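Action item from last meeting closed. Structure (184 res):
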């Protein structure tokens, strides 16, 4: 798609990538072809309210159309908050969340990540959380919670295991996490 076409919102179907559907199915979106574009997922999606151009239904539609470059050029696939509301309401058990995750895997293969995603991935590797406020301990204590959440933050062994798993994924190829650490 040319930049002029993109600016006008024109989609040239003759330039679509028909292999994208198969790639998404192989990367975890096995039920993709069951989607009937009923929009129940869109009705439940916070991304719609936030105004992202591609939300779950439109991501699936773009995949059907083979619009790989349009999806990779837009940061919407990284805006999904993994709430799984879409999956809960889908009458066809398509699991739109997994399709978005599969599209993220495509983006990682293509090294097409927005800056904020890179920061989130670094944080995931360092703390076990994509978004983690290091100074939140005092606030947690004030409301009667333990200083550290019962997650990788409070369990260094679990964090080491998570880091080992991440180092064996395509994320390691991005160069944003250490490849090898001493003693690992």
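Sequence:
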């Amino acid at each position: 798609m040319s930049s002029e076409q993109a600016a006008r919102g024109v989609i040239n179907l003759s330039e679509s990538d028909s292999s994208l559907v198969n790639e998404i199915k192989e990367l975890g979106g096995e039920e993709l072809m069951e989607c009937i574009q009923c929009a129940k997922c869109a009705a439940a999606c916070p991304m719609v309210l936030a105004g992202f151009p591609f939300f779950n239904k439109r991501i699936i539609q773009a995949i059907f159309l083979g619009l790989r470059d349009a999806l990779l050029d837009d940061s919407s696939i990284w805006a999904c908050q993994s709430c799984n509301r879409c999956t809960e309401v889908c009458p066809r058990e398509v699991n739109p969340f997994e399709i978005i995750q599969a599209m993220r895997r495509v983006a990682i293969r293509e090294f097409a990540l927005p800056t904020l995603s890179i920061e989130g991935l670094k944080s995931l590797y360092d703390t076990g959380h994509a978004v983690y406020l290091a100074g939140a301990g005092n606030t947690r204590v004030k409301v009667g919670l333990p200083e550290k959440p019962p997650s990788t933050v409070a369990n260094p062994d679990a964090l080491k295991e998570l880091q080992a798993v991440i180092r064996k994924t395509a994320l390691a190829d991005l160069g944003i996490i250490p490849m090898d650490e001493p003693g690992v």
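Note appended to the action item: The chain has a mean pLDDT of 86.
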